[in-house]
Amino acid sequence: MSGMNEAAAGAPQGSDFLQLDIGSAPAGGKADWLAGRLRRAIADGRLTVGSRLPPTRVLAAELRVSRGVVTEAYRRLAEDGHVEGRRRGGTVVVAVPVVPGDGAGEAGRGMPRGDSPGADAVDAGRAVAAGAFPGPATADRVNGAGHSVAADPFPDADNPVGPGLFAGPGGVRTAAETLFTGEPGPGVFDALRAAPARFDFTPGRPDLAAFPRAAYLRAERAVLGELSADGLGYGDPRGAPALRRAVADWLARNRGVRVEPREVLIVSGTAQALTLLHTVLRADGIDAVALEDPGSLGSRQHLRNGGLATPPVPVDDDGIRVDALRATGARAVLLTPAHQFPTGVVTSGERRRALLRWAQDGGLILEDDYDAEHRYDRPPVPALRGLLADRVCYLGSVSKLLAPALRIGWLVPPPRHRDALIDAKRFADLGNAVLPQLVLARLMDSGGLERHLRLLRGRHRRRRDAMIDALAAHLPGAVVRGAAAGLHLTVTYAGDVPDTDLAAAALAHGVKCQPLSWHRLLPGRPGLVLGYAATPAGAIADGVALLGKALRSLS
Amino acid sequence: MSGMNEAAAGAPQGSDFLQLDIGSAPAGGKADWLAGRLRRAIADGRLTVGSRLPPTRVLAAELRVSRGVVTEAYRRLAEDGHVEGRRRGGTVVVAVPVVPGDGAGEAGRGMPRGDSPGADAVDAGRAVAAGAFPGPATADRVNGAGHSVAADPFPDADNPVGPGLFAGPGGVRTAAETLFTGEPGPGVFDALRAAPARFDFTPGRPDLAAFPRAAYLRAERAVLGELSADGLGYGDPRGAPALRRAVADWLARNRGVRVEPREVLIVSGTAQALTLLHTVLRADGIDAVALEDPGSLGSRQHLRNGGLATPPVPVDDDGIRVDALRATGARAVLLTPAHQFPTGVVTSGERRRALLRWAQDGGLILEDDYDAEHRYDRPPVPALRGLLADRVCYLGSVSKLLAPALRIGWLVPPPRHRDALIDAKRFADLGNAVLPQLVLARLMDSGGLERHLRLLRGRHRRRRDAMIDALAAHLPGAVVRGAAAGLHLTVTYAGDVPDTDLAAAALAHGVKCQPLSWHRLLPGRPGLVLGYAATPAGAIADGVALLGKALRSLS
Asked: For a FRET experiment, which of A79, B24, B244, B523 has its CA 20 to 30 Å from that of A149?
């Protein structure tokens, strides 16, 4: 933060800078508040890439706060990757969360912009099927002892599995034998969750031990202290205005999607988003939603339950095969373009252009942006919704950002579906619970959620590396894919052991995971989908060793 | 706010008063901020009942704000019912939101248990149409000036009304003219909520100013302190086991319903319960659900949206007419037997027996037990579910016990529908959010919720009495019904002014209420449905005076 004099030249200054009114900062949270204001100014274009922030000393004097407050705020923005200290150049805005239409520089910083259909920057960030094993697993793991003994948080003596699993007898006592037999029913995820196991590699969960409990409680206290009595009544079925604003800001900062708060609909997670879409799509004459294959079993079950056909469309290393999509004749498709589930493929630039052409010809894209914010080795790709608002319905949630237990997500539908979706949400449950919405809005507005994500990224990356190492060491012929981002990877292995058999043997050895074939209708190699984010590195090594043992027992 | 010297005596003063730091107040929201701080201090015991607030002039000087800021903050607390201006006595704290463990007197403490099927208490508690007016309203209300200016808690600049209301233009600006015109659509309740008005007599809300914020936060802290990391993952779609146990205990203690926790399904309020039932009933071959008439417009809209026919069945002073129910041929009926909405009729013993016979002949009763715990002048009747488990699906929620904003309810279905409802809940949203469930379980298990209800009953009874008095004084020919329990009453009046016209005129005069005809398909006298629970007594008197004025303007 040296070079203040140079930096000051030309920089907006003083209390007029962004019309900052420190009087509106909460006591004890001035740095948070200031960082939030600056973040918003970057997101909405008042501070553009390349512009300099006022020197800390100058801004502190103008705001009549200690210089430490300003330094701390700048530090947080630097951690976000939004600004950079450039010695003599001062503190400079280097990355707009995603700015449609400009062409900022190099890879890794600032996101590849892809707002105009066909932006080439996308290819720079293309999926690399990470066959890359950094050599044999090192033997010096810390914490080799058994941890992460994931006791089921919802034990229920009488019926641990719930209905809808399999017609046959058995239940949880014989989960290892029955869970992976036959066509998986709607209760299969509950059954897997309830099955006892020492190591849980179920995909889709972030590191829940890192959940910011203290920050959550602080935010809840503030919300309860400020909410009016009327605010405890029936709320807006579209969601609390504060959260809809916070989500709109979040999407602008992190996902390259610029929307008004009124375009955002708060829902109870992506599952509810799909449920609401069932009726709205059918009313729009859409009776089929094409699915990526491999693709999420849960989504397939969901759409079918809603009376929609789900023709499978193959995914290759560039993403979904758009020619095959056209061939299905389906007018809608559910996609995970930022990090395809379960393969981890990032949709290439060429394929994105083809998809957008398909959509412009009348197709509707349901964009499930489920874990786009979790990236390690490459910049995130911006969401498709930012490119073609009229033909893309965007789905997001906090399940991978904070915790699935919160059950909060959001929909940004195309304008023509908005009112019908609001009606559907109103009939579904009159709107989400209000207090958790307001708590989340605070965590988003304060930058707390972005700080949490940065913390998670470091932890997740170490766990991912541990899993890649362990697979190389313990699973014969392991080929890992989709590890450049997200909370899980897929692995194929030598031999022809069916993956359901391997998953069953793994469960018998105390390891939970999902067979790749659950998520596939089209033929393909057997494999496993392994979540690594919620398990400490040492336990990952131990669990994968047991996986290897299970595979050898079958070969 | 005269008598400042007296008031100052013994009052905490100055900037040390509550350690108020005006620097943490948002710009332009100082009165709000101050009211919030004072409210919290009353809630957490720093300001006890009987203590005096500093004189406005003194506090204003200490905080260096205009006296108007302090006056406005005090006014808001007076509207809440937390403080009262006492001429020479200054401004005094008169009500604490919730005091655990106090033993305020009279009947209505310790609830009569009604757990034996067929308890005779039912007949004793028969509906009494409360024509009882305790004489002309007294004229010596304190604080006759305008209070309870209930600004909409969810203003939204672009679209305050939401879709689904009426096709025509207008929106909130012409709410008074358009809201009550034509067939009410699914957005009509949102529109009414968003309409600005000084007095809000919308039925269905308890006293939300009494919400036990401190106890809620304490419970949340305990939950966050104890929950395992896995507990933050995907949960049991049936609901958190702790809450299902707490609800089972609650139903046994308070509603005469003895069930196992595994029979309880946690949902997002009664609205979601109905949504889940749509598909399950249709799958069971049920295509019509008979409705009480008068009966809830919201329920009618809901069932119709779910593709179910809703034949109306008249309600008389004994409850629903079972002969007419048989004549519809419908195989299911939605009932509010404990306190019929909106008439307040309690189903008589003879009628309950007839209903149970109808159910034993193959009928299904959906029992919406929406406000059974709120009773004043008579013991509660036990729920029908306790008498005929196989033919009754029980629906309850915390919307009237604590706050609609929590969006938590429960279903106790007949055994044969249980698994299908669990599947429906899983598809709907994978289960309710976990933290609010665990907080509620603590409030139920600790007795905190029952203490809260005792507090509410006293407050609600005073407000009900104030409304009855005011109606007698101001509404020509007023006949009140359904005031022996609940959160609302119905009133008919002399003359033939259509109730939609009266409701529109009332809104134009600044008073929100619902026309009785909204809730009726069969012919009947015009009337209003008036909620009194959420409005302080003084404001009730003022609002009802305006209602009378509105009626006179039309006669």
From this structure: B244
Q: Whole-angstrom Cα distance, residue B240 to residue B476?
A: 51
> Which residue in B21, B237, B305 is closest to A427 by CB distance?
B305
Distance CA A226, CA B26 (A): 12
The lowest-confidence range among A37-46, A135-144, A229-238, B347-356 is: A135-144
- Compute the half-sphere exposure of residue A230: CA atoms within 13 Å on the CB side of its CA: 21
Nearest to B248 by CA among B116, B396, B356: B396
CA distance linking residue B24 with residue B396, whole number of Å: 41
Mutate: best of A188, A221, A230, partner B, most B CBs <10 A: A230
* pTM beyond cutoff 0.90: no
Q: Which residue of B has its CA nearest to A260?
A: B158
The answer to whether the CB of B192 falls within 8 A of the CB of B513 is no
Q: Contacts of residue A231 in chain B, CB cutoff 8 Å?
A: 153-154, 405
Do B154 and A27 count as a contact with CB atoms less than 8 A apart?
no
* Alpha-carbon distance A149 to nearest alpha carbon in chain B (angstroms): 10
Collect all residues with Cβ–Cβ distance below 8 Å to A157 and sequence separation of at least 6: none
* Alpha-carbon gap, residue B417 to B464, rounded angstroms: 39
Chain A, nearest residue to B425 by Cα = A272
List pLDDT tens digits, range B384-399: 998 899 999 999 999 9
**Do residues B283 and B256 make contact, with C-beta atoms less than 8 angstroms apart?**
no
Cα distances from A347 to residues A58, A314, A355, A475, B409, in angstroms, run 45, 13, 10, 28, 42
Query: In b/e form, how buried is each residue of B116-144, taking b as 16+ CB within 10 angstroms?
Result: eeebebbeebbbbbbeeeeeebeeebebe
Eight-class DSSP state of B490: E
The 8-class DSSP code of residue A375 comes to B
Q: Look at A37-46, A109-118, B486-495 and tell me which has the smallest mean pLDDT.
A: A109-118
Buried b (16+ CB within 10 A) or exposed e, B227-262: bebbbbbbbbbbbbbbbbbbbbebbeebbbbebebb
The closest alpha carbon to B147, from A424, A413, A229, A190, belongs to: A229
Cβ neighbours of residue B9 under 8 Å, at least 6 residues apart? none
Contact B269 A156 (CB under 8 A): no
Q: Which of B37, B406, B407 should be substituted to probe chain A, the one whose Cβ sees the most A Cβ atoms within 10 Å?
A: B407
- Dist CA B162 CA B172 (whole Å): 10
**Cis before residue B342, ω within 30 degrees of 0?**
yes
What's the rounded Cα separation, in Å, for the pair B206 and A233?
9
* Of residues B394, B142, B362, B348, the one with CA closest to residue B254: B394
Q: Which amino acid is at B370?
A: Y
Return d(Cα B238, Cα B204) in angstroms, integer: 26
Residues of A in contact with B193 (CB under 8 A): 233-234
Q: Is B89 left (phi over 0), alpha (psi -120 to 50) or beta?
A: alpha
ipTM of the complex: 0.73
